[in-house]
Design a protein that fits this description.
Blueprint (H helix, E strand, L loop, with lengths): L24 E2 L27 H6 L2 H18 L16 E2 L1 H6 L3 H6 L1 H6 L2 H11 L2 H12 L13 E2 L18 E5 L24 H13 L12 H4 L3 E5 L4 E2 L11 H15 L21 E5 L1 H6 L9 E5 L16 H13 L11
Parallel strand pairs: 4-5, 4-7, 7-8
Antiparallel strand pairs: 1-2, 3-6
Helix pairs in contact: 6-10
Length: 365
């Protein structure tokens, strides 16, 4: 009998489009150029009442400001009247999304507030989080950040807020359908030059933080061939499908937890729900003979510390491998983080679920 060669499946998330169409397209992660900026807020109308902007609200006299806040709230309520989309109903590659249509539906203030998300968030994430961005709590969060100096990706970065705006959503460069593992952190490192949008990671040239040193120590215990690098840049893991997500995505310099309670927790809870529905959706079937299902079939979640364990409590433990232990901080690593075996357990589960070779090369940094 003639042999049948199974052709590899190419997903849209693997393609790079430098000229994204304004038409409705299926965007599982066509990487829209990061240089494509969201259009500026529409020009004020010369007839009738002018659409009020965030800058008006910030610098106008107090009485006028109260009137404008009421108008902005009405606009937000109109836009968010639709319920959030039900996750997991459609296959990931079949969810349509038009960035230009999304922006056009926003009010002038919303366009200013959400320009960063439209510009830098990975499109496989944006299409399933777009309705979350217009929820009242998220717009309130963005007003808080705007007052802190966090604006567009190409605006001057605030010197006392980390990471730089362009890096806040760096975790979303890992395509949703290819997520294998989530490592959940707390909030970004508060030291200058440390935070760059990936949990536990620091840019090249920055000294390795103590928690990450302990992660490397545990990794070497599980994989003796691992040689801890001279850097703490974990992009090599992110490129293999490891989602390095903090619970809170920004922090004030030198003040840990300074942006807790502003709304990031609700947003990253929604990110975890998205992962629950679609994480691993574009990973191949174990036998390699069938295309990926387009729906999430389970991932590994590493929740280190009590706060992380609380965040993942709502995930389906029958679908995912949820690994919990103490935090790798020097204050707690000796009380359950060391010798937790999480890296080997993760790979064993991934290879059982997705086939040989489906694990992460943790030594590849």
């Amino acid at each position: 009998m003639p042999t049948t060669t199974v052709q590899p499946t190419v997903y849209l998330e693997d393609l790079v489009s430098s000229k994204p169409s304004d038409a409705q397209v299926f965007l599982e992660d066509i990487q829209v150029s990061k240089k494509q900026k969201a259009p500026p807020p529409a020009a004020a109308s010369t007839t009738g009442k002018r659409q009020r902007t965030l800058l008006d609200m910030q610098f106008a006299p107090e009485a006028a400001k109260r009137q404008r806040v009421g108008a902005a709230s009405t606009t937000a309520a109109r836009f968010t009247a639709t319920k959030r989309a039900t996750l997991g109903v459609q296959r990931l590659n079949s969810i349509p999304f038009s960035l230009s249509a999304f922006i056009a539906a926003l009010s002038e203030e919303q366009q200013a507030l959400l320009a960063l998300e439209c510009d830098v968030m990975g499109k496989s994430w944006l299409k399933v989080l777009a309705d979350e961005l217009t929820q009242p709590y998220f717009l309130t969060l963005k007003r808080f950040l705007y007052a802190e100096g966090v604006r567009g990706a190409h605006d001057p970065a605030p010197p006392r807020i980390y990471p730089a705006p362009k890096n806040i959503y760096a975790w979303s460069d890992t395509p949703l359908g290819r997520v294998k593992v989530v490592i959940l952190g707390q909030d970004p490192y508060p030291g200058a030059g440390q935070a760059h949008g990936l949990s536990f990671s620091v840019p090249p040239g920055v000294p390795v933080p103590a928690s990450l040193k302990n992660i490397f120590t545990e990794l070497r215990t599980e994989y003796p061939e691992f040689a801890p690098p001279m850097h703490g840049h974990l992009a090599g893991w992110a490129a293999q499908g490891v989602l390095l997500l903090n619970t809170v995505l920004t922090v004030r310099a030198g003040t840990p937890a300074s942006h807790e309670g502003q709304g990031w927790e609700a947003f990253t809870d929604r990110v975890l729900k998205v992962v629950d529905a679609y994480g691993g959706a574009n990973l191949p079937e174990p036998d390699g003979a069938r295309a990926a299902s387009g729906v999430g079939r389970g991932i590994v979640v590493m929740a280190w510390g009590a706060k992380a364990a609380k965040r993942v409590a709502g995930l389906d433990a029958s679908k995912h491998l949820i690994l919990k232990s103490a935090h790798p901080s020097p204050k707690s690593a000796d009380y359950g983080f060391f010798n937790n075996g999480h890296f080997r357990k993760a790979n064993a589960w991934l290879e059982t679920r997705y086939g040989p070779g489906a694990g992460v090369d943790w030594c590849k940094l």
